[in-house]
Amino acid sequence: xxSCPSRRLSGLLIAALSASIAGGTAHANPGRAEQPGxxxxxxxxxxxxxxxxxxxxxxxxxxxxxxxxxxxxxxxILNYDLDMEHLMHLxxxxxxxxxxxxxxxxxxxxxxxxxxxxxxxxxxxxxxYADTTPHGAGQQVFRFTLDDAPSVALVxxxxxxxxxxxxxxxxxxxxxKTTLPANKPKNLNxxxxxGGEPANDLFPYLGAxxxxxxxxxxxxxxxxxxxMLRGARSAQGSxxxxxxxxVDKAGPFMQTMLPPLxxxxxxxxxxxxxxxxxxxxxxxxILVR
Length: 289
What we know:
By secondary structure, the protein is mainly beta. 8% of the residues lie in helices and 43% in strands.
């Protein structure tokens, strides 16, 4: 039986119209590749869910977006407590742990979306840690991976405990130890030198004497601590800790209590503010055994 031209034309018009509608819908709602966060705070408990995506990618640059929800996954969180003067601390670490960034993203109060512009280097992945305090939930830290393409740094990385001294601009940051006992709380002393002498031009950074981030190189677990000042030495040689509210300057003698750390190697970054408003970062490798 011969086909009817009018029916064939009608079918083509319907197919074309359907394709046009579908194409228009896809263009209007292109969607985005959202990545669920992995809870990364050592010793913590997840009380929310977190999602990550990149918008406006342009080569190696783009805008990192994080949006967080109640455990139902649908109710966005709009109310955050300030922690060290900011709603979010966004820590970005390259996969070989050779670079470190501590950012404070913008926040859209209408949608609950945090955003931060970032440019990565080729042939590397990045681990992104979103550190926030949603009201009533306490500290929450989620990890994301930027760029899941093959990485040149995915070979087995070799580590050794670093020297106790590390340069940071005009300063030398000195740790009391770079080998610590596993699974025990431990005090870590930090001293900052300038020109071989205790530095006297340090100032509080984001409400603390310093900021110290630990990341386990195997599990990628995260710890963020804030040292207190060690005061004047007593006649017995001991020191007295002083809260930041008691002084206008920070350092050069500080101390921080570390939580029990599982065995492993940790990359550690100590951030200080000196010489006005300049922030300096000293990197270390600590062995916990």
